[in-house]
Backbone:
C-alpha cells in the first residue's frame, strides 16, 4: 500500500492540471479519475495534482482504486501528486499507516487547467425488520 508521501510525489513538479474530487470516493469515482488521468497522459500532460479536499466519504476499495490510478499514471510518465486536503481524508490516510503529505496549495495554479470530478453515491436502502 502506498503512503501519502508516495502519493505526494515530487514537490518541485510544476502542476499543469489541478483535479478536484468531490463527493464520495468509491470505485466509481476512482474509475472516473483513472479515465481522466489516462486522457491527460495521452494528451501529453506531465504534472497533475489531485485534491481530495471536497471528498465527503470514502470506501477502502475507492482508496485502493485511487492508488491504482495514480500508480498507472506515474508509470506512464506523469508526475501525479495527491493532497489529502481535509481532516477526514488525512485521518483516512493516517489510518492506512501513511504519513502526512507535504503542504501544497489547495487551488488550481494560475494558468493551469482545473478539472472537477464529482460523484455522490446513492443512499443505501434500509430494509424493514420483522
Residues:
Amino acid at each position: 500500500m502506498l503512503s501519502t508521501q508516495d502519493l505526494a510525489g515530487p514537490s518541485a513538479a510544476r502542476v499543469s492540471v489541478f483535479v478536484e474530487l468531490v463527493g464520495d470516493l468509491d470505485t466509481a469515482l476512482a474509475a472516473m479519475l483513472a479515465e481522466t488521468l489516462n486522457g491527460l497522459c495521452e494528451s501529453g500532460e506531465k504534472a497533475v495534482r489531485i485534491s481530495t479536499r471536497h471528498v465527503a466519504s470514502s470506501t477502502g476499495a475507492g482508496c485502493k482504486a485511487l492508488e491504482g490510478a495514480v500508480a498507472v499514471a506515474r508509470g506512464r510518465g506523469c508526475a501525479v501528486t495527491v493532497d489529502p486536503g481535509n481532516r477526514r481524508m488525512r485521518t483516512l490516510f493516517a489510518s492506512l499507516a501513511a504519513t502526512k503529505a507535504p503542504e501544497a496549495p489547495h487551488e488550481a495554479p494560475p494558468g493551469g487547467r482545473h478539472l472537477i470530478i464529482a460523484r455522490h453515491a446513492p443512499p443505501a436502502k434500509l430494509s424493514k425488520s420483522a
In short: The chain has four helices and four strands. The CA atoms of residues 1 and 116 lie 26 Å apart. The two ends are 42 Å apart (CA to CA).
